[in-house]
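Handout, section 3.2

Students often ask what a structure token actually looks like in practice. Rather than define it abstractly, here is a full record for Polyol transporter 1. The first block is the sequence as you would receive it.
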Amino acid sequence: MADRTTNDNTVSSQPQKTIEDFDPPQKPKRNKYAFACAILASMTSILLGYDIGVMSGAAIYIKDDLKITDVEVEVLLGILNLYSLIGSAAAGRTSDWVGRRYTIVLAGAIFFVGALLMGFATNYAFLMFGRFVAGIGVGYALMIAPVYTAEVSPASSRGFLTSFPEVFINSGILLGYVSNYAFSKLPKHLGWRLMLGVGAIPSIFLAVGVLAMPESPRWLVMQGRLGDATRVLDKTSDSKEESMLRLADIKEAAGIPEHCTDDVVQVAKRSKGQDVWKELLLHPTPAIRHILICAIGIHFFQQASGIDAVVLYSPRIFEKAGITNDDKKLLCTVAVGFVKTVFILVATFFVDKVGRRPLLLASVAGMILSLIGLGLGLTIIDQNHGRIMWAAVLCITMVLLYVAFFSIGMGPITWVYSSEIFPLKLRAQGCSLGVAMNRVVSGVLSMTFISLYEAITIGGAFFLYAAIATVAWVFFFIMLPETHGRTLEDMEVLFGKFHKWRKANALLKQKKNLSHGDGNTNNGQVQLGTKGQVN
């Protein structure tokens, strides 16, 4: 009997294989706490979206009420993007100084003041001053939302959560279009002021909501507050093991020895932002140079391919297509906003499943075809000097297809990609450079669209944007590696080979396969991201 018991114990001590052991690893469930943090942070982006959407329709009534020229309309619509450079340039240092959380509060407060100034504007100069203040708030919001979201997100859903700022930009655009239509029935002098003034309302909700947010764990580590950072990471990670690994990666990047486990530690001055610009711009490593080229390039092409021309000037595009009634033009813009919002929501669920590169390349290819179709339709209508029904339908369809393709890839992935590739100590300033490029190109495009289409015809303008989008597709295909499933602190391994990045990607695949073969460990390291999927 004793022998039998001994044999049973020997057998039971050996690991028993079951059918479940051969199942693929399950994806971790969405972290609800990180989800809520990402939503609150990304609400800052609704401020820019609302301004873009509402100005497209308000410009019609502002031009008539204040008796301004087309050039003044161009400047009015596009200048906010250049003003936002001040905010985005200051946001990197501000967020390192006071924290990501209070930088979000500051963005909302500044935009609140700007929206009120625009709503009470009595002349063009007063209105431009309101645009200046609002623009600074928008610059802050654009930089800090994706940075904060990337820093609180677990790797398994980083792309999903970091695409939220673009979701809220599109939601804001839709709200702006709806506001245009809702207030268009009011007297001309009152309608556009209410359109602009109600933009202050979202910033109030933002200021209240941010009180429930934790500080970024990466910023806390940079301040030496390891205890607070650990508590945030435990809440925002998919597992305790991932939380420990994320903390170890951040400590390493911040220059804190691994054996330091006190709640508060002394941090070297270098990790608090000094010499960052020198390391980023003057003496970058090959990896940092590659990262910088990719981040600035993706922001440049996002705007240079014409999205703001379509969104800001959609009433004029529809007028050129033969729709002359103001109500119908505004309803068409609402349709544009609705399509953009729906497709950005679709994109958020695919960015962590399909990966960044496939969505981005498919998106830009669709944009190229849509821009060619739109240019063709507008050219036919322009040359025939009359309304051609099939060409008008083609133009409206191509505009809707263009914003749909933009929203499934180019729109959200620009923010996801640029916020996740920079190392910790360079992230805030690196992202602010990307946002600066984004806003400069957006401002130039917005302030030249009317002059451009008067010079080369409106169809020619969209053929030009199609050519730029084609260059963008080639750039993305050659230069941008896939980052899906990679840890934030591992990006320097993937970058630095420029167009030969596929070799580094192959090494990371090999390392990942080996770690899976050794029980998902590799020298004590746990691979983050979507398990069981090779990128």
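Discussion prompt for tutorial groups: Confidence is low (pLDDT under 50) at residues 9-15, 19-24, 519-535. How would you have guessed this from the sequence alone?
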